[in-house]
Write a structure and sequence with these properties.
Length: 402
């Protein structure tokens, strides 16, 4: 194979298709953007070349293949594009939600492997079909170019059974694959490597608690650079309180709701879309900025939502710190972890007992990558901005050059 220079990263979701084109040498982002509201009359495309201002325009994108064609046109456009022809794309990396037990690492999508991915649709009925559709569309538009699937679950495959198994009879794991898989793996992987570099340590000698805090949130216990435990489970509903998801519950709550007459779909909708900060805060928004503002304005429900959010995170940080035998650093990333000083302060102000010497001024003023703890702090607290697209490009490069 000729040298790999340009890698296209595709994140194909239920109604959107995000893309980033990298020049892998120097990890330079040549262009990125998205097509959103695919399949609706109000489809829209956002495109940005390098660091230039982004442009936005309405488009006709009845399906993901049409959206991908628009992306290709934009990338090769004589005026605003970055490629002379599509032949300059050497490999394509795809974000795929679930690899279950079948895929421990990023994997080349041969026809056989793609068939195996298709068997995993029941693990992600909303996300997997568009993920697979993105791969199939690329196979048609870029014949002969390798497609690599990078799974959100893969980095968590190192969890020991004592963390990954649920305490129910094993037949349910064997028959239905019911166990903890974990998500946001690409982000936890990226920030683990970046945090080790920031701390001047080798990843395999680094213990961390990585906190990916966004609309969806998860924490991971990182022992010697590998995942030892994580908060999300069979699905991304488990763990901490999120924008619209409940996180952990007594499983009997679900039984009680069934007995009260709710269907599986209704409970699914309640716990995934109407709970979390949205459900508790009572201000019609699960966005952290709105919750913080309302709490600061004296809204008691919003203040409670924020307290519950922080309570669960502190609880998991303490637990994971113990599980990995002491961490070098607590790492914050994701939309909230990187940007919301107020939300971070709620967590960081309670980590003194672990040896984190919280620097309030740094938290209020600095942007990542940076320390949030004072020099000499026994345990560091840091912000490391995540970059899942870049991690997908790196993994794709590794697979196709292996
Ligand atoms: P994500 O899902 O990672 O995109 O994160 C979305 C969350 O990050 C939302 O709750 C936002 O309120 C929060 N967020 C994003 N930007 C900021 C900001 N500048 N300040 C505070 N919160 C932010």
């Amino acid at each position: 194979m000729s040298a790999i220079e340009n890698i296209l990263v595709v994140n194909s979701g239920s109604s959107s298709l995000k893309f980033t084109l990298y020049r892998i040498d120097g990890e330079r982002r040549l262009a990125n953007g998205l097509v959103e509201r695919i399949g609706s009359a109000s489809a829209n495309m956002v495109y940005r070349r390098g660091d230039e201002p982004k442009s936005e325009r309405p488009v006709s994108a009845p399906d993901h293949a049409a959206a991908l064609r628009l992306v290709c046109e934009a990338l090769t456009d004589g005026r605003t594009g970055v490629l002379k022809s599509l032949d300059e794309v050497d490999a394509i990396g795809h974000r795929v939600l679930h690899g279950a037990d079948l895929f421990r690492d990023a994997t080349l999508m041969t026809p056989e492997n793609l068939e195996r991915v298709k068997t995993l649709v029941p693990f992600g009925p909303l996300h997997m079909p568009p993920n697979i559709g993105g791969i199939e569309a690329c196979q048609k538009i870029f014949p002969g170019i390798p497609n690599v699937a990078v799974f959100d679950t893969a980095f968590h495959q190192t969890m020991p059974d004592c963390a990954a198994r649920y305490a129910i009879p094993d037949e349910f794991r064997a028959k239905y694959g019911i166990r903890k898989y974990g998500f946001h793996g690409t982000s936890h992987h990226f920030v683990t490597l970046a945090a080790a570099e920031f701390l001047g340590k080798k990843p395999e000698e680094t213990n961390l608690v990585t906190c990916h805090l966004g609309n969806g949130s998860s924490l991971a216990a990182i022992k010697n650079g590998k995942v030892f435990d994580t908060t999300m489970g069979l699905t991304p509903l488990a763990g901490v309180v999120m924008g619209t998801r409940s996180g952990d519950l007594d499983p009997a709550v679900v039984l009680e709701l069934v007995r009260k007459g709710m269907s599986a779909d209704e409970i699914d909708n309640l716990l995934n879309k109407k709970s979390g900060l949205l459900g508790v805060g009572g201000i019609g928004s699960g966005d952290m900025r709105d919750i913080v503002n309302a709490a600061q304005d004296g809204n008691a429900s919003a203040a409670l939502a924020l307290d519950m959010w922080a309570h669960r995170i502190v609880q998991y940080i303490g637990g994971y710190f113990t599980l990995v035998g002491g961490a070098d650093a607590i790492v914050f990333t994701g939309g909230i972890g990187e940007n919301s000083a107020a939300a971070r302060a709620k967590v960081l102000s309670r980590l003194g007992c672990l040896g984190v010497d919280f620097d309030e001024e740094a938290n209020a003023t600095r942007r990542g990558p940076c320390y949030l703890s004072r020099p000499g702090s026994k345990v560091a607290a840091i912000i490391v901005p995540t970059d899942e697209e870049l991690m997908i490009a790196r993994e794709t490069y590794q697979v196709v050059t292996k």
